[in-house]
Amino acid sequence: MIIDAHGHVEEHPMAAWHTPAELVISLMDIAGIDLTLVTSFIEAPTNPDAIDSLAATVRKYPDRLLGFARINPNGGDKTIEAMEYAATFPEISGFKLHPISNGAKAYNKPAQRVLKRAGELGLPIFSHCCDRVAAQPLQIARGLLMQPEVVFICHMGGFFHGDDSILMAKKCPNVYLDTSSCPYPDLILKAIDILGADRIVFASDNPAGDPISDLAKITNLGLKKEDEELILYKNIARILGLKKVRGMAI
After folding, report:
1. If you average pLDDT over every residue of the chain, what do you get?
2. pTM confidence score
């Protein structure tokens, strides 16, 4: 069993990028991935169709995809309403934040409202986390320390902030690190050593990332079987409360 914690589908005609579900699934099949958590490129409530469009795409392949609704924190009450609306869809299991695209720092009021409401709804948040201002790991940690109830998943810091992403997760026990956008397998081993395998989730950023090479970063680490299984599917399944994937019990 393999669950990819980070992918993208986008079929809305107003989106700048188009990554149809069929492309994502074809790459999953080549790599042997069973299920991928996918988000869109358009955001709610900025684009009123964002949630419906994502849910409709996931609905076509319910045994292969699960949606994370992309949210712009700067919409005030409309953002919270969008989150509550997204939570009514069985195709949507969490939320996506992209601080670079909308400039909403995790410790400022708009993002704090989103983090708080996600915790109240019992749904996790995935966030872009990398080298640029607004999305650097220690900036995100500052916001998460104020909202310890929300489950938070993010990149391992990109090319230059991997150590900071580990420090963030060490400070914030509600943080899980995903392995996409991390070109250094040794950094993954360091994260496992410091945080434990139960705080790491496999991810590829499909189709922007290559599921085959990203999967090899995990399977070539020489991990104990139980640790590899935690990273490849058990951790994210626990976060989402999944009992079955493609008809198979977890």
Report:
1. 95
2. 0.96
